[in-house]
Structures are given as C-alpha cells and as structure tokens.
Amino acid sequence: MKKILAFGMTIVLLLGLLSGCILREVPRTGWGETEETGQTFDSAETEDVTETEPVSETEEVLTVEESIRPRIWRVRSGGSTLYLFGTIHLGDERNGEVLKLVKGKLLSCEALAVELDVVAEESSSESLNEILELYALKDGTTIRDHLSPELYRDVTEFLRQGGLDSRTLRQFERYHPALWMELVDEILADTEMTLDYDWGMDRLLIHTAYENNIKVVEVEEAGAHYGVELGLPDAFFEKEIRSLLDEREEYARDVLELYEEWLRGDWDTDPVIEMEEEDEKILSEYFTKQEIEDIKNNVYSETQILRMLIERLPEDVLIEETEYTSEELKMYLKYEEEMMDVRNEIMADQVKNYLKQYKNTFFAVGAAHMDGPTGVIRLLQDAGYTVEEIPIR
Q1: Are strands 111-114 and 360-366 parallel, antiparallel or unpaired?
Q2: pTM, full prediction
C-alpha cells in the first residue's frame, strides 16, 4: 500500500526548494573536503549553461542528447501564451542540457513565474534568517526531545560523515525535525545520488532570466508553504528519517529513477497505479471493484484516497498497512491538502492571471504540481482552457 501513499518521497521532493535555498548556506566540509572547498554554485563553472551563447537556438538544441526531452505544455488565451513547464528541484549537469531546449521559449517571454525566487532569497540574509527562525523550536525543547536517542545518535553520526562539524550540529539542535530531515536529504543527494540542488531546474531558469532582463515573479507569496509540515507528529519524522538512513540505497535509486523519467519526459500526468495483489486483496474488503479500478486509474487524488482509507479501514488494519495511526494520517492529510491541493489551485489561478497580465509567460513549478486529478493541468482544463502539450525540440 506504500505505492499508493508514498509519504516520505512526496515530502522530501516537495521541500527541495528549502534545501536549495537554506542548506547550501550550512558550513560543510563535504566528504573529505575542507570548508573552503565546499561546493557552491559558481557561474564560471557552468558558463556554457547559463550564459547566452553566440549560436542559434536550433544549433544549440542539436547538441543535446536525443533522449533528453522533458515535457512542456502551452496555454493560450486572448492573444497571450503561457508555457507550462514542470521542473525538478535538483539534478546534475544534464539540467543544463534541458535549459538549452527551453531557453528559446523562455527568452520569448516577458516573465518567468516560479514557486520561489531562490536566487533573490539567497542574496538576502534577512530572508534566510526569517525562514530558519520559522523552523526553530520555540517551546524550550531541542531536537533530542523530538527524536529517539537511537535515531539522534545515528543521524548526528551520518551528518558528521557528511561534513557537518560539531559546532554546526550544536547550532541545529534548536531546529525542528523537518529541517533535520532536509539535512539528511541534502547529503544523500550529494553522496548517494550524485545530484545537486545547485543544478535544480528552477535555479538555472532564474539565473537565465536575470541575465536576459526577464522579469522573475513568484507564483505564491514569499515563503507561503514554509512551515506547513511543522504540524506533523514527531512519529512521522522518526519513521521517515530512520527510513532515509536505513534505506538510503533504495531511496537514492527511487529519486534517480524519478529524475531519469523526468529527463526523458517519461512520466504521465494521469499515471496508472500499479497495485500489488496483496494490497488489492486487502482493499477489496472495504472498497468496491469499481472504486479499486478508479484508484488504479488515478480518478482519485492522493488526499481523496487517504481520506477514504482513514474512514473505512479499521485502526489495526490501517496501522499494519501504513504504519501510521488514523490520527497521524489525519495530520498528514491536512499537510497534503495544504502542500498540494490548495497550492495547485493557487497556481492554476495565477496561470489565468498571467495570461491577462503578460503577452508571453514561462511558468515553471515543480512537476509534482502538474499531474493527477487535482493537478494544475486538470484544473485548467476543468476551467475551460485548452492545455496543449508541445514538442520540446
């Protein structure tokens, strides 16, 4: 049943912007590096990616590996055009190749719309401090009060191996487990996946927009979605951090697979869920055959499925199948609704606004917001807009 409700993966990937914006400021030595040589985004190192090259768009596209073809959509209304591009918040140098494919469309636009202008955020110590303060524990507790002694020991040892010194770890004692989970994820990206938030697609697009005097606008109010996960119980973070540590190879493989699928454009905006036979057998006791088929065919959103599971499954079955109590799942449901469903509606409304405000807009938000029954694409279609997938090349 975990294929139906992939909690940890969802949260870690959705919070990727937080990693890219804040955690790159954390003093780290890296694996065997000195603090002075820790990785930071250096435009000189990626000059061929972010600088406007003296070649035509066609020539540049021809140099890109054929298998790289992420998905992009176009929405038109009243003489205005908006490109809808689902991004990923981390990656490797191949994201620079993706940039070559979409740069022509970006340069034709008046505005680039993103979830968060990470470049501007990073340039403001005040903004970073405000976000960090949001994740500070304000009840007099420390991280030791929120994680078991065993997990605290293991996660601190992992972070030390990842390059965080004792002084930095002591400073982070006053922060919420959500930020600790992000620290673990950041180091896993560096060490297990060879991916980097500095290569996040959003970051590359923003740099390119600034270099070409394209207006960068934030789809949401600054930091609107920060802190939503703070309402989740300690038990959630205990399980998810433990899972990241103990199943790091599997997690890394899943994220890399997701990244490769994104690069190839091999992801479906209405994916069919491959349900294991045992899960289907269990669900058949509480759901009709049609409902199970609808779950498989993505008729229901994840929040709708979660709500039905909470309402229908006995507590003992729910715990056995999901490893969470109904009360814990209700907290996650609230998080999922605010982090995905509510934000998707805001994003869809902003698409409508930008179509009125600008002649051409490049709208780039996380790919997770595009798909499913409550995704941006479906919401726009339901509102009467024609959302047309167009060739990337």
Answers
A1: parallel
A2: 0.82
